[in-house]
Design brief:
The protein is mostly helical. The chain contains 48 helices and 4 strands. The longest helix is centred in the first third of the chain and has 24 residues. The termini are far apart.
Length: 982
């Protein structure tokens, strides 16, 4: 397979790795001389080893040098890092390494490692596959020095890694001996070094007889120990067969030789004498056969029978017993040349293997072929052999990988589809081999390069439609690889880049599409990457795929989260009133429309929104406009906007963006297409706005107005709304909320007074005669003014003036209505001043400007009686601030306003100007009005108690005793003042 060299971010070159390593290691060497570490002999040395290895691994991660994966032995960066480590290890031959044309300059670039420490570092970086491969390519002297230390380090690996390393390294060292007889190596004494290499190989073989190697102490169940016997025996049979079947010549792929090349410069090559080599190989072969014979003799009847309980990890269609039996059969067939040889142990070995061997099924010739024959068939261009080799991916060794890699172009569209199907099945297998599956998927990815782009689209769409709901590739596909790729290649309109994107979409559909969409909308997760819409729309066949909608479940959960279905005081009151009147208050019932399927791209966009906002509003809008070309507008509203409005992630800034997008949709669909859950979503956001005391009232006013207007345009007819609220058991709407969100006809202030009266009476249903009082209408209106928009403020005023009977505020004329509104507005401002926690910080300035707009509508004759009364009312009511405002930042501005009032002789226009200047100061200093620490005025205390009673009655889960207690305190404290309110 081609080098997996990746384009590195600027500054992240391999030379940068060398330089950082130099400073890192030199610093560590000051703490402990690294060249003399030969074991983990003390806790202090253990600490230094672990610390150094962690730092080097972290450095590799920061520079995008992989330390995990199945193709590390073919990854250019990893091999360069490996060779740098070799050049800076305290080998006796490192002076010869300095003669290498490429890497000689890096020899002794830093303080050197000991050979033992080098191996520890390689283990931590998971470079053991690279080390095993390197034995084929490195100078003989280097191989010998490493192998002499290696046996002491094997047990530092777990069983899986150590057994894999040994069964890979042993055949490569065996081949190295043959290479010494063919092309030789750069060394001074080839015969002596060859004998040392053979001795080192025998030392490695002894590891299989070491009890510590099997790690049985890690296994609790006896049956699992039996399984380990089987898997190890199978691996050893394959290893020994591979060695014994090796020809007299070894071919090294040019690509691998070039990557691993490390020389002693112009030093001459020497070859081993043929007689010496034959002697060494005979001894090694005898040792190999003895190791295998010893392992076979360890298998008793219980172990053998127990193997039927396990599937073979490399071919799950076989039992472990059957797989071992086939390996025994193939071993016997492939090593016939050793029959009657000088190695007498061979005949005994064959007798033992025959006891457990199994013949392959004759009717399935390809599947029954041994791996070496399959590889040969692949090299001959036989597609059926390549397919069989893919199905036996768990048995792949380096030779099999190279065979697959060199013949991958044999695969066509149909065979790729079959391999994807097989992959999907393997992913669902509980005993899946993650590392081997990575090999499988990477080879499959390369196969896609040879398909037509139209064929690749077909495979991608088909695979996504079948398996997009499954997410079992997390350990097989590292999505960070895709992130790195797309960050470096955001324009994927080229066929090469598009193939990579489609491959990841096949195997990690949702997360890949989420990354692409985030980059398209300028998400903060990817601040420096921008995908253009034209490139994204190349994926239209994928974007349009229909998938299951989770709307109903998701919205139900969000709705429950943002508004738990708990009984509230209003619910209790309505139930009591219903019982008293003998009929249901709400009789209509409607059902919300619930989508069943959704476009895949919309579903992913929904996930992005619910994670939390962080996108560019303009780019997000552009993406939506593209989406509207292939999916319904109502689908976007139902699947994206409604859930987002329900979520806590919807901040006020992004609420405005959402409302602006909804405004663009007015008139683009019929009423009734939008789920009525939008009503509740608006309500949820409205409640957040009305209860927020940390943002501007002007922002709240703007957002509430937008919600109000959208409610009229986007939702079904208002007469259906109350039935829907009953259907959702949401009786806790007060009339202000209905006015804002439902656009119900009627006089909302009158309804609020009536509703409060009903709730109050229902709360006191058991003892009306004892508490025959309700809080004054004034307190209800002040409560409403605290939460109203500017538009509603004026609406309330017009409503009060139009009332046929003006007894609501104890008013008999329009003039008295104006006077009372002036008083109530300024009292509400006083309440905000002394109790700032109940409202937004700029509420005082906001309410004053609402009042000013109302006063600008006064058309009484100047200097007339009514005109003078309004001026007098304004002048007298602003005096309610005089006892407390001096303790605040508004003191000087207030005195300046009073001074102007005294000098303008009841001129309403000038008084409005003075009040406007005061309102402006209130707005400018609003942030300094968040805290009030002075004594409260008696009037403000009364206003607070009245406000608290109204607030409490509309609150969820209010207790009757708590309400009655507050009511009793209010009545007793202001008994004389509230007589007229009864």
């Amino acid at each position: 397979m081609e080098n997996t060299t990746e384009k590195q971010p600027e500054g992240c070159t391999i030379e940068h790795f060398y330089k950082v390593m130099q400073s890192l290691v030199d610093e560590k060497d000051k703490e402990h001389n690294l060249r003399y570490i030969t074991s983990r002999s003390t806790e202090d040395i253990e600490f230094h080893i672990d610390s150094l290895c962690r730092d080097i691994k972290g450095l590799c991660g920061s520079l995008c040098i992989p330390t995990e994966g199945v193709f590390l032995r073919k990854t250019d960066l990893c091999i360069k890092a490996f060779k740098y480590l070799l050049c800076n290890t305290n080998f006796t031959c490192r002076s010869l390494l300095s003669k290498d044309d490429t890497y000689g300059q890096w020899v002794d670039f830093q303080q050197p490692f000991s050979t033992y420490l080098l191996i520890e570092i390689l283990w931590h970086l998971r470079f053991e596959d690279i080390l095993a491969e390197a034995f084929l390519h490195l100078p003989l002297d280097l191989c010998v020095e490493i192998l002499e230390v290696l046996p002491r380090c094997i047990n530092l690996l777990d069983f899986e890694r150590s057994s894999k390393f040994l069964t890979t390294a042993v055949p490569n060292v065996y081949k190295k001996l043959i290479i010494l007889g063919n092309t030789g190596s750069q060394t001074k004494d080839i015969t002596s070094k060859a004998r040392r290499l053979a001795a080192n190989l025998q030392e490695l073989l002894l590891q299989f007889s070491n009890e510590r190697f099997l790690r049985f102490e890690d296994i609790k169940k006896t049956d699992d120990k039996y399984k380990r016997y089987g898997t190890l025996l199978k691996s050893i049979i394959q290893m020994v067969r591979m060695c014994l079947a090796t020809n007299s010549t070894v071919e090294i792929p040019f690509e691998m030789e070039k990557m691993y090349k490390l020389t002693f410069g112009e030093e001459p090559f020497q070859t081993v004498d043929e007689t010496v080599l034959k002697e060494l190989l005979t001894e090694i072969n005898r040792e190999l056969i003895n190791v295998l014979l010893q392992k076979v003799k360890e298998i008793d009847c219980n172990i053998y029978l127990n193997w039927t309980e396990y599937d073979d990890e490399e071919n799950t269609s076989l039992t472990l017993q059957r797989a071992v039996g086939l390996e025994c059969y193939f071993f016997i067939q492939n090593t016939q040349e050793y029959k009657n040889s000088t190695i007498k142990e061979y005949d005994h070995l064959v007798e033992c293997l025959q006891q457990i061997s199994s013949k392959p099924d004759p009717e399935n010739s390809v599947e029954s072929l041994q791996m070496v024959d399959l590889c040969q068939g692949v090299r001959e261009g036989r597609l059926e052999c390549l397919m069989a080799l893919f199905r036996r991916y768990k048995e792949w060794d380096n030779s099999a990988i190279d065979s697959v890699d060199s013949s991958i172009s044999l695969l066509n569209k149909t065979s790729c589809e079959e391999l994807f199907e097989y992959l999907a099945g393997e992913l669902n297998h509980p005993g899946k081999d993650t590392e081997k599956l990575q090999l499988y998927t990477l080879c499959l990815a390369k196969a896609l390069v040879y398909l037509k782009i139209t064929e690749l689209y077909e495979i991608t769409v088909k695979f996504i439609m079948r398996f997009s709901e499954e997410d079992n590739l997390d350990n097989v596909i590292d999505i960070t690889n895709f992130e790195r790729f797309i960050m470096l290649n955001p324009n994927f309109s080229s066929a090469k880049n598009l193939r990579v994107v489609l491959f990841f979409l096949c195997l990690k559909t949702r997360i890949t599409l989420k990354i692409l969409l985030k980059m398209t909308i300028g998400h903060t997760d990817y601040p420096d990457v921008a995908i253009i819409l034209d490139d994204l729309m190349l994926l239209l066949p994928v974007l349009k795929i229909q998938t299951h909608s989770k709307y109903e479940t998701m919205v139900h959960n969000l709705r429950s989260k943002c508004s738990e279905k708990r009984e509230s005081s209003i619910t209790i009151a309505l139930q009591k009133c219903s019982e008293y009147r003998g009929h249901s208050i709400f009789e209509q019932e409607t059902k919300a429309q619930k989508p069943q399927t959704v476009t895949l791209a919309v579903r992913i966009l929904q996930d992005i929104c619910l994670e939390g906002p962080g996108w560019n509003a303009s780019k997000f809008s552009g993406l939506l406009q593209s989406f509207y070309t292939f999916c319904k507008v109502s689908e976007i509203v139902n699947e994206v906007f409604i859930p987002f409005l329900f979520s806590d992630a919807c901040s006020f800034i992004y609420l405005k963006y959402t409302l602006l997008e909804l405004q663009k949709l007015v008139g683009r669909f019929e009423k009734g297409e939008i789920s009525r859950d939008l009503i509740l979503a608006f309500r949820f956001q409205g409640q957040k706005l009305l209860t927020s005391n940390h943002i501007s009232r002007y922002i709240i006013d703007e957002l509430l107005t937008m919600i109000s207007n959208l409610s009229d345009h986007l939702l079904s007819a208002p007469e259906h709304i109350m039935g829907y609220l009953e259907f959702l058991e949401l009786y806790e709407f007060d009339d202000l909320m209905c006015e804002i969100f439902m656009q119900l006809p009627g006089n909302s202030f009158s309804i609020s007074i009536g509703r409060y009266t009903n709730l109050h009476q229902a709360m006191l249903a058991s003892d009306v005669t004892r508490y025959p009082i309700h809080v004054a209408d004034d307190n209800v209106l002040r409560h409403m003014l605290l939460n109203c928009t500017k538009k509603q403020y004026l609406t309330y005023a017009r409503e009060l003036i139009r009332l046929p009977s003006r007894s609501t505020l104890g008013s008999k004329s329009e003039l008295e209505i104006f006077e009372n509104l002036i008083r109530l507005t300024l009292e509400t401002c006083l309440l905000c001043l002394e109790y700032p926690e109940i409202a937004a910080p700029d509420s005082i300035g906001f309410l004053l400007r609402c009042l000013l707009q109302l006063l600008s509508t006064v058309h009484y004759k100047e200097k007339g009686k009514s005109y003078k009364r309004i001026c007098a009312s304004l002048q007298s009511n602003v005096m309610i601030f005089k006892d407390t405002i001096e303790y605040t930042i508004l003191g000087n501005a207030y005195l300046e306003m009073l001074k102007q009032f005294k000098g303008i002789a009841l001129n309403l226009s000038l008084m409005i100007d003075a009040l406007e200047q005061f309102a402006l100061v209130c707005m400018q200093e609003s942030d300094k009005l968040r805290i009030y620490e002075a004594p409260h005025s008696s009037l403000a205390i009364k206003l607070w108690m009245g406000y608290d009673i109204v607030r409490l009655l509309f609150e969820k889960n209010v207790k009757e005793e708590e309400y009655l207690l507050k009511l009793r305190d209010y009545v007793e404290k202001y008994k004389g003042e509230v007589t007229d309110e009864i």
